[in-house]
Amino acid sequence: MKHAASRELYAYWEQRRGTRAAPERAEIEPGAIRGVLSDAFILGLDPGASHPVRLAGTRVCALFGREIKGESFLGLWAAASRPVVEGLLSILRDESTGTVAGVTAQNADGEPIDIELLLLPLGAPRPGFARTIGVLAPLKVPQWLGVSPIGALTVGGRRHVGAALEKLLLPRFMAPRGRRGLVVYEGGRTTIARKEDGPSAA
Q1: Four-residue CA torsion sign, 163, 165, 166, 167
Q2: Alpha-carbon gap, residue 50 to 103, rounded angstroms
Q3: Alpha-carbon 151 to chain mean position
Q4: What angle do CA 187, 192, 197 make, to 5 degrees?
Q5: How do residues 84-129 score in pLDDT, each as one tens digit?
Q6: What stretch of H or E contains 163?
Q7: pLDDT tier, 163 (very low <50, low <70, confident <90, very high otherwise)
Q8: Whole-number Å distance between alpha carbons of 121 and 20
Q9: Residue 57, Cβ neighbours under 10 Å: how many?
């Protein structure tokens, strides 16, 4: 993560979730991340409404030159990027897996801007209350920010983050030391078993 706001929000999200896949929406305290709020947003994970923006920080709104609360999040993206972003939100909702991505855009004068996107899942008691919290922050603040709005966003390189990825990276094939007999290794779709040195269990 390149932007300080992304790193701060991710660290806070990690601390609040503990051993769970994601923290609850009610556990996020704005005062604890006040340095992030201007670059932060919250979305409703509602595909039928194109994932509406529930809250958006002042600098996020300044990017577009308007208040974007209530707008479709997918509507902020170029047509070619919408299926990609919708896919990322589906993975976030179904697997509690977040994403950090590079984003580009231009203002009306064709001046480019590089932006970092962070999407993190929030737990909810019912699917209708599903939310994601994130950051949409310019890597370098141009002089025209807030004066010349940007157009549609284009998604670039991206990678997933979160608890689901941590599980995939665990050393699943490391045998416990000092044990004899049959040891079973859990490994995705297949289960591998091998016999350690020692007396036969036959």
Answers
A1: positive
A2: 19
A3: 23
A4: 130
A5: 999 999 999 999 999 999 999 999 999 999 999 999 999 877 766 7
A6: helix 163-168
A7: low
A8: 11
A9: 19
Cβ contact 104:116 at 8 Å: no
- Distance, in Å, from the CA atom of 45 to the CA atom of 52, rounded to the nearest integer, reads 8
What is the C-alpha separation between 29 and 45, in angstroms, rounded? 20
H or E stretch including 4?
A: helix 4-17
Name which of 185, 190, 192, 191 is nearest 170 in CA terms.
Answer: 185
- The DSSP call for residue 149 is -
Which two tokens mark 163?
């608890």
List residues bridging with 14 in a β-sheet.
none
Show the tokens assigned to 135.
Answer: 């950051």
- In sequence order, the 6+-apart residues with CB closer than 8 A to the CB of 181 are 195, 196, 198, 201
Helix (H, G, I), strand (E, B) or coil at 18: coil
Neighbours of 109 (CB within 10 A): 7
